[in-house]
Write a sequence for this structure.
């Protein structure tokens, strides 16, 4: 490779890198700082960039960008740790009059602020399964 070709390729390479930096940073900021290099790579390829996922990871490292890690929360049910509660209704969910059998459940809901809220509901079985009016 002669010096003119080398100079041309070096200039193009630096232009390409600066454009790639801008594109990756724009996608990262558009995601609210959540996307990591695999997701940004997919979006860059869809935009027509010919780049590898490792190059995108290198770009992000040089820019100091890091996506958020998905934190998997452990469930509250751990079989075998405690004795099960007694089944008072013996799986018989029939009620002829109101206020005989109640059923309830609780669930965790992830909030947008990164916290948790708990939702608990209960229902009178008579009004669910009976044709009581």
């Amino acid at each position: 490779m002669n010096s003119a070709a080398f100079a041309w390729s070096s200039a193009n390479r630096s232009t390409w890198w600066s454009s790639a930096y801008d594109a990756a940073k724009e996608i990262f900021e558009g995601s609210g700082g959540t996307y990591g290099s695999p997701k940004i790579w997919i979006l860059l390829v869809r935009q027509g960039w010919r780049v590898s996922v490792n190059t995108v990871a290198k770009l992000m490292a040089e820019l100091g960008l890091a996506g958020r890690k998905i934190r998997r929360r452990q469930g509250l049910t751990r079989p075998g740790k405690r004795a099960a509660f007694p089944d008072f209704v013996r799986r018989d969910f029939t009620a002829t009059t109101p206020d005989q059998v109640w059923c309830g459940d609780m669930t965790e809901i992830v909030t947008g602020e990164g916290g948790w809220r708990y939702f608990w509901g209960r229902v009178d079985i008579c009004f669910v399964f009976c044709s009581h009016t």
